[in-house]
User: Which sequence fits this backbone?
């Protein structure tokens, strides 16, 4: 707010404000700031200095100015309702957040988990639900301090397949297959003719208004199948915020490898996690955005998801030995496309070599340039170094060798 004041300094018991524009005195925020300046400096008068005239205003006159504009109710209410003065705590700062899955999920948090289709994010959502509901640990790093009340909204699976998966996860934790410790709301039930749910439907929201307050964690699987918003996600985020402000936590699962609408989603989320399948079919969970976690808690997790007819188990790969970390297939295509463009090839030529349309190539090139400029929202810190190192390696190759590398990443028929 003080950026709009050219200069401010204390001269004895008078504060002199030099304004660049006389109209600034009409700015509500500026007036409130000036009253706070009176309070903090103990000044009795304030002098607005314009050229060529001077105007003198008292604190009482300033408060009266706000009363006229309905910013302050009365003269006794000198604390301005949109500014926290010195010596007072910010409203809401006395909230005690309950750990749900420590340290990554606390009460009122929004966590976004995204991956391409078929990678295993739905399984991971079920594992998180069972973990929190039974008070267990995840990846030997994250811990449900106590049993939590979990609600999973499923927009993907047929009821029988959902229950089969839920039983497999229970067995993976060493529990009986009929132990179903969390609440569910499937979309594709026999009593729902459409087989769909819209989280923003007024009737459904009315039902949620009665149900959601008792839950610690709500898991939404997945965002696109449970909303009809396309890329306009702000109504959903507004609905989400109503409940996070009341202490309900959300894990939103997203079927997207690049987090479409990522700017709004990232702003709303306290944590964004990206799940990728590696060449050896293992999985890598990366923390691409974290608002509150320390560096140790955001190290990528490399694990195997072992799914049998009876169970689903997650096994952390603790020791990767001297095996170097590698980029995902998608990022390798971005790197190779960028290196070939730098060698003089056009997008159409690159597409022909790799078996993709030129629009895909343009997308890879755009993402590669965002990564190199530090503007990508969908890359973990450790991947940036790998990305740059791979570009340097490719620069050293001959043109024939570069084409050979590209053909290894060609679309498989």
Assistant:
């Amino acid at each position: 707010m003080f950026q709009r004041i050219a200069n401010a300094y204390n001269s004895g018991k008078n504060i002199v404000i030099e304004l660049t524009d006389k109209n600034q005195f009409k700015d509500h925020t500026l007036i409130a700031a000036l009253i706070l300046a009176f309070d903090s400096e103990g000044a009795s008068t304030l002098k607005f200095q314009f050229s060529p005239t001077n105007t003198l205003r008292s604190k009482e006159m300033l408060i009266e100015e706000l009363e006229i504009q309905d910013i302050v109710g009365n003269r006794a209410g000198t604390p301005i309702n949109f500014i926290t003065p010195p010596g007072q705590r910010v409203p809401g700062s006395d909230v005690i957040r309950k750990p749900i899955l420590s340290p990554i999920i606390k009460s009122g948090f929004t966590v976004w988990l995204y991956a391409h289709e078929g990678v295993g994010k739905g399984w991971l959502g079920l594992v998180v639900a069972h973990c929190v509901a039974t008070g267990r640990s995840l990846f030997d790093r994250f811990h449900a301090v106590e049993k939590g009340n979990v609600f999973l909204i499923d927009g993907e699976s047929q009821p029988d397949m959902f229950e089969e998966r839920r039983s497999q996860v229970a067995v993976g934790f060493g529990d009986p297959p009929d132990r179903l410790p969390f609440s569910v709301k499937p979309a594709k039930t026999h009593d729902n003719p459409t087989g769909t749910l819209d989280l923003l439907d007024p009737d459904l929201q009315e039902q949620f208004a009665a149900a959601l307050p008792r839950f610690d964690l709500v898991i939404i699987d997945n965002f696109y199948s449970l909303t009809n918003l396309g890329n306009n996600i702000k109504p959903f985020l507004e609905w989400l915020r109503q409940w996070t402000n009341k202490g309900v936590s959300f894990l939103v699962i997203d079927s997207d490898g690049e987090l479409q609408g990522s700017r709004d989603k990232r702003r709303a989320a306290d944590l964004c996690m990206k799940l990728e399948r590696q060449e050896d079919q293992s999985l890598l969970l990366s923390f691409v955005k974290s608002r509150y976690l320390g560096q140790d808690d955001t190290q990528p997790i490399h694990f195997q998801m072992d799914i049998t007819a009876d169970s689903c188990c997650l096994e952390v790969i603790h020791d990767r030995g001297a095996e170097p970390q590698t980029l995902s297939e998608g990022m390798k295509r971005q790197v190779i496309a960028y290196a070939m463009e730098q060698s003089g090839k056009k997008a159409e030529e690159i597409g022909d070599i790799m078996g993709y349309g030129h629009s895909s190539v343009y997308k890879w090139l755009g993402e590669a340039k965002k990564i190199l400029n530090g503007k990508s929202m969908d890359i973990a810190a450790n991947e940036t170094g790998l990305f740059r190192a791979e570009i340097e390696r490719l620069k050293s190759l001959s043109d024939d060798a570069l084409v050979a590398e590209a053909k290894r990443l060609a679309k498989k028929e």
User: Anything to note?
Assistant: The chain has three domains: 2-68, 99-316, 329-408. DSSP finds twelve helices and 17 strands in the chain. The chain has a mean pLDDT of 79.
